[in-house]
Amino acid sequence: MKTKSILMASAIAALAGTAPADEYIIGVMSAQSGYLAPYDGPAYAGFQFCIDEMNANGGLNGTTPVKLIVKDTRSDIAMGVQVVQEMIDDGAEFIVSSADADPTIAAAQITAADMIPTMTFAGTAPVLTQVGPHVFGSYPADNQQAAVLAVYAREQGFENVWLVKSPDSAYTLGGPEYFGTAFSTLGGNVVGESNYSLNQPDFSAIVTTIQGAETAPDLIVTWAWEPDFPAFIRALRGAGLDTQVMGGDVLDTPTVRGLGDVVSGVIHTSGGYPDEGSAYADFVDRFKAATGTEPDNNYYVNGCDIAHMIEQAVAAAGTTDPAAVSEAMAGLENGQAVMSNFTFAGTDRMPLRDVVVARISASGEKEFILRQPADLAILPAP
Amino acid sequence: MDLLLQQIINALSLGGIYAMLALGLAIVFSIVRLINFAHGEIMTFGGYGIFLAMAFGFPPLAALTVGIGAALMMALAMERAAFRAMRGADVVSLLITSFAVSEILKVLFQNGISARPVPISFPASWSGTYQLAGMNIGVAPTVSILVTLTSLSLLTLVLRRTSIGMAMRAAAEDFEMLRMLGVRANRVVAVSFAVSGLLAGVAAVIWTAQRGSVDPVMGFFPVLKAFIATVLGGLGSLSGAVAGGFVVGLLEVLTQAFLPDGVSPYRDAIVLGAVIAILLVRPDGLLPAGDGSRS
Fold it and tell me: Which neighbouring-strand residues pair with B38?
């Protein structure tokens, strides 16, 4: 009797831990703490929201329910590698990785053997897809953002740019360098560069160097994120320099917009803008109604778009086999998404998507300036 | 020449913050032999105090006072809740306790307030400049230097002229002897934590005024630098901590300003290399503690 009970309990436990055969298992690396938490958190919230909506309608394409395995990486790359391995051991057929190039590249080393498609939440450094044919970006890449921003800057008559960059991450280094390349191609001059360290305590030395430059820049470009950008812009304006500042999509946050007078007029790229009546505006309304949270940055909607990208790749593959889904994803052209449509075909798997240029108003609002795809003729190579 | 003078002002401004944090670390270490790595979270808590006060509509100056008070209360609470029970434990146990307190507070900040930095918008006039001898000098670095010098002067006065200050200095020399003379240990230790909290609060005020945001790990990096400064100055030496803070600030700013582009990514390594070089020449630090305890 006792043996029977044990066998019965074991069988129930085994059944409870096994996904139904037609369930698609997606592993999600989501940093709940550390420097990636501000990006992974909203991206995961948007992703989960849209997966839940799909599951309520039968799953991907109405036929394939999705099961999510979500694990915290604490923004630690070693921890990230460990959780990816655990998720693969638990049957993950697709990995959504943290919102930066470095953890995505580390995750992609683990997923390479089985060609498990690996897509970053919002990493934008175009080098991240060079690990293998199973690695995908989801957000407009840094070189696309930089090319669009450089065209805008030249159209506005800016001639001399100073680049503020950090070699500590592919994003903070690559963005300004791509901008410099595109800006030079369009006839502008890079008159100086400054390097900083992530979490650098003080930017006054850099600001003083810019003040003393032989050729004064009329434009400063940085891909610095929080809390470095707030520190930099306060030091810059505090020193009396009112030079125009432009930056990457990482400035598209309520924290930056909340800095007050010092950020008035700062121009940045962005993945999208919720125009009235657009699919994006509808997403904002639905998300707010369902969760009570205002999706106040693009990471939410991009998380949702990742769900749509996976759905369309699975539909195109006609199977959930990881290698087939990777191949199908790479061939998608003009895929439908909420923030903007996307094309992987003909790219190195960083999707071609529209880039928005926006301005921070005096009242701390995000003002739309333009939306356009990058001009491939001036797109800097990764 | 103007450029050099401006960079020296920048260095004094940054060094002053390091000096205040280093002094806070040194005061506590000199009395209870605790290297308090949770000191950064005291500073962070002060920053959140400013943020919350402004969110509730306090005027900026009142919000800064709330921030300093919050840091002071956090330091006292930390001493009472975590470190009093560990009194007399060995240095390693105290160190691990401080790391644990630091991690717990960071997680509480992340989950209780926000994982993202929260903005603090000070009046535009606080970011202005003024002319002095043909140079454009920022208001924020000037205020930072003045506040630092005032704080350090007041602290010197308290340590030298008041009975509790003398008790703290005596405790730094020989804590056991002080207790045998009938001075209440809990009071001296609590006051040392309060002073370190006060200094962390003032540092938080200057830091947030210059950086414009607060995040859960805001205090970690400056306190790491302050720890380097206390070692450089002579662990346990109060004057050494101040000197170490200014030297580290000076090294950081001057290497940032004058290293060629190709070498600048190695700036942190160069600064730490310089610190090691100084310690090789003066292993007990720039101004060693009176009891000759080695760094």
Answer: none
Greater confidence, B167 or A333? Answer: A333
Among candidates A167, A239, A257 on the partner chain, residue whose Cβ is nearest the Cβ of B129: A239
Confidence of residue A10 (pLDDT cuts 50, 70, 90): very low
Number of domains in chain A: 2
pLDDT band at A19 (very low <50, low <70, confident <90, very high): low
Residues of A in contact with B3 (CB under 8 A): 208-209, 211-212
How far, in Å, CA of B66 to CA of B257, rounded? 35
Provide the pLDDT confidence category of residue B1 given band limits of 50, 70 and 90: low
**Whether residue A21 is found in the same domain as residue A83:** yes
Domain boundaries of chain B, sorted by first residue: 2-217
| Mean pLDDT score of chain B | 86
In angstroms, what separates the C-alpha of B195 from chain A's closest C-alpha?
A: 23
The token pair at A251 is 């400035």
* Residues from chain A contacting residue B211 (CB–CB below 8 Å): 227, 230-231, 234
**A200 and A181 belong to one structural domain:** yes
Q: Which residues does chain B have within 8 Å of residue A208's beta carbon, measured at their own beta carbons?
A: 3, 6-7, 10, 257
Range of the domain at A15: 2-140+277-351
Q: Are residues A259 and A154 in the same domain?
A: yes
Binning pLDDT at 50, 70 and 90, where does residue A48 land? very high
Question: How far apart, in whole angstroms, are the C-alpha atoms of residue A12 and residue B38?
Answer: 47
**In the structure encoding, which two tokens stand for residue B295, read together?**
């760094």
Rounded mean pLDDT, B143-169: 86
Q: Are the Cβ atoms of B106 and A33 closer than 8 angstroms? A: yes
Testing the interface with B: which of A162, A200, A234 to mutate, by most B Cβ within 10 A? A234
Cβ of A18 under 8 Å from any chain B Cβ?
A: no
Based on the domain organization, do A123 and A11 belong to the same domain? yes
Asked whether the beta carbons of residue B210 and residue A235 sit closer than 8 angstroms, the reply is: yes
Closest-CA distance of chain A to residue B244, Å: 16
Per DSSP (E only), the strands in chain B are: 118-119, 129-132, 135-138, 213-214
Asked whether residue A159 falls in the same domain as residue A297, the answer is: no
How many inter-chain contacts (A to B, CB under 8 Å) are there?
140
Note the pLDDT tens digit of each residue in A143-154.
999 999 999 999
Domain identity same for A127 and A265: no
What's the CA gap between B171 and B184, in Å, rounded?
A: 11
B295: confidence class by pLDDT, cuts 50, 70, 90: very low
Q: Does A242 touch chain B (CB under 8 A)?
A: no
Question: Are A201 and B118 within 8 A, CB to CB?
Answer: no
State the Cα–Cα distance between residues B274 and B256, nearest whole angstrom.
14
Instruction: Write the DSSP symbol of residue A33.
Output: S
Q: Rounded CA gap, B23 and B197, in Å?
A: 11
CA-to-CA separations, B24 to B31, B34, B199, in angstroms, rounded: 11, 11, 6
**One domain for residues A235 and A360:** yes
pLDDT band at A52 (very low <50, low <70, confident <90, very high): very high
Contact (CB<8Å) A227/B215: yes
Domain harbouring A109, CATH code: 3.40.50.2300
